[in-house]
Amino acid sequence: MSASGRPARHRRRTRFALPALAAGLAGAVALTLTTTSAGAAPAAPNPVVTPDRHTVSRAELLQRVAGAVAGDDTPGKGHGTAQSGSAQNGSAQSGSTRSGDAAPGGRIDPKIIGGVSTGISTAPWMAQLFYTDDRGTSRTSDDIGFFCGGAVVAPTKILTAAHCVKGYNWHANGAIVTGTAQLFTGGDLHGGTLSGVWRQWNHPSYNAVTYDNDMALLTLPNPVKAKPIPMTTASDTASYQPGTSAKVYGWGRTSSTSQAISPVLKSASLPIRSDTVCSGAWGGDYVKGHMVCAGLAATGSDAGTTTPCNGDSGGPLVVKGRIVGVVSWGVEDCVAKGAYGVFSKVGAYAPATYPRVDDTDISGDGRADLWLRRKSDQQGFSRDSKGSSFGAAESWGSWKGANLVVQTDLNRDGYQDLLYRLTGGQLIWSHYVPSSGTWANKTVTTGWSSRKQILVPGDLTGDTLPDLVSLDSANNLLMYAGRGDGTFSGAVKIATRFSAFNQLRGHGDFSGDGKADMLARSGSGSIYLYRGTGSGGRFTSGVKVGSWPAVTTVITPGDVTGDGRADMVAVTKPGNLYLYKGTGSSGSAIFATPVKIGTGYGGFDLFS
Fold first, then answer.
1. Catalytic choice (10, 54, 109, 163)
2. Do the beta carbons of residue 330 and residue 310 sit within 8 Å?
3. CB atoms closer than 10 angstroms to residue 497
4. Which of 130, 148, 336, 481 could bridge to 164 as Cys pair (CB 3.0-4.6 Å)?
5. Confidence label for 510 from pLDDT (cuts 50, 70 and 90)
6. Annotated catalytic, 489?
């Protein structure tokens, strides 16, 4: 992020010069999604890319880690922030006391006392978040240094708490360590992978006083090898049933009488508590629906108490292999009698958070951009999203020979990929390689000229990786589970008799439940929503969400406006461009009233 809080662009938009299709590939008849030999692939596009401006040296990152280790600030309360949260008697209003609150005494403080040491093989997705800032002065009294936990939810995405992120410039001052259960000591990362931060996001409604909406994501400039853990979804209620066994992970304080955090990863099992119990303990500070508390009531001392504590902030609460909570806050020193640790309820924030996991775009600012090709000369262009409009067209050179282009991120590295089909039926995955600053191309499959529709809606199976859907010549809808490397598992038939639709589109969550969906346009112009189930690549039955006969082309770039909701863009018969802003509604009103945002689009024949 820039100092102004606006996302720093990681690179200029890439420009491809796609060569005209040659005389077809010899023997290109494979119908399964496997990678063909490099010699069989068409000539690679030749993009022009400026050097990455987010690159930070290893030496600088190590200094940031060391500075954070030496610091003793509490995230959300460091020097120069507007955050306080130093309330008494459980009240989240700084310096006030509310007699009506039934919270245990002590100051609210973002926070494993108890628990056991845990190896990284048990929790390979755990991440250490180090932040240090000398504030640009020679004084040390105003330095900021703190530590938080987090979890890898995609190869370049770290889920953590907003109070660890809001108000801080992680690009300029942060460092992430993954792949190790030991904390940094004496310059030793203990086999961990060191990363900088490219950009940051926190829930737009995060309240720095009440810790409500305490949810954030950090995006890394390069993917890490750590195995991601999926977040739960909005429809998950079973994980929050009282008594459900959950497990919390972190490197936080192990005693209420010492500020030292644990040098090794700890975990502890905690039962989920009911909202009634949580409200009874915390009064109005506990926001039902946004928060969840877990554990047994603290005893007043370390003995008999198992709870997250300072330094565990941002770490995950896990139920059956999914993150259901993020460590948010608790009572100062963590063990006050009757206290429970409080977590942000991940299921409640899935609709806002999942789109940020799949927020790749051409310009790198978190808003989905428009890609299109001019019919007259086959030139490709991109238009940068401005939130409610698109910017000037930037040429990508000739795209003669392509008949389908899809914007996606198959390897979840945070960079925009393109999946395109040539007229001979070859499906090509072109992706940026940040380590070399070049583009690589892989033939995903061949012989797909008869496929009527090809789309990549997002993660349809619940494994955090984007999956591919195609409509074959017999109007069967087939799903191919993505492996995260440009290859896919075998076809799974998920629907039949899809002949009524001439366009299938999808990129993200249209229904607000945190699961990738699909849109289908009928010949008469009606649009149907097929909600993803997040399991097995299946969709629910279609629901009509609108009828726009004048619309000729439906485009689903993703989140065009940057508000965390998937949008739709459409071209009408006269060539006008309309933005259908996503509402996140679970009903049929998934789009706001369309707004005209451009003209002259009738001269383009490919959109993505």
1. 163
2. no
3. 9
4. 148
5. very high
6. no
**pTM of the predicted model, to two decimals?**
0.82
Q: Cβ atoms within 10 A of the Cβ of 526, count?
A: 18
CA distance 593 to 339: 47
Which of 356, 535, 537, 522 has its CA nearest to residue 455? 537
Distance from C-alpha of 399 to C-alpha of 509, rounded to nearest angstrom: 29
- Hey, is 529 helix, strand or coil? strand
Q: Show the tokens assigned to 313.
A: 């902030």
Give the whole-angstrom CA distance, residue 501 versus residue 526: 9
Q: How far apart are CA 214 and CA 204, in angstroms?
A: 10
**DSSP label at 351?**
H
Asked about 214 being catalytic, the answer comes back as yes
Active site residue 275: no
Q: What is the pLDDT of residues 367-399, one digit of tens each?
A: 999 999 999 999 988 899 999 999 999 888 888
Residues linked to residue 327 through DSSP beta bridges, in sequence order: 343
Read off the amino acid at residue 604: F
How many helices (H) and strands (E) in the chain?
4, 35
Tens digit of each residue's pLDDT (9 = 90 or more) over 293-306: 988 877 666 666 66
Contacts of 506 (CB under 8 A, 6+ apart): 455, 456, 457, 458, 469, 516, 517, 518, 519, 556
Q: What is the mean pLDDT of the chain?
A: 82
Q: Report phi then psi at 356, rounded to 5.
A: -75, -20
Question: What HEC string does 269-316 produce?
Answer: EEEECCHHHHHHHHHHHCCECCEEEECCCCCCCCCCCCECCCCCCCCE
Helix H or strand E encompassing 357:
helix 346-357
Asked whether the CA dihedral 209, 210, 213, 217 is positive or negative, the reply is positive
DSSP 3-state of 450: coil
Measured in whole angstroms, the distance separating CA 239 from the mean position of its chain's CA atoms is 21
User: 73, 133, 212, 214: which one is catalytic?
Assistant: 214
Cα–Cα dist 404/420, whole Å: 5
Backbone angles phi, psi at 532, to 5 degrees: -70, 145
Burial class for 593, CB neighbours closer than 10 Å (0-12, 13-18, 19+): exposed
pLDDT at 304: 64
Active-site entry in 239, 262, 279, 313? 313
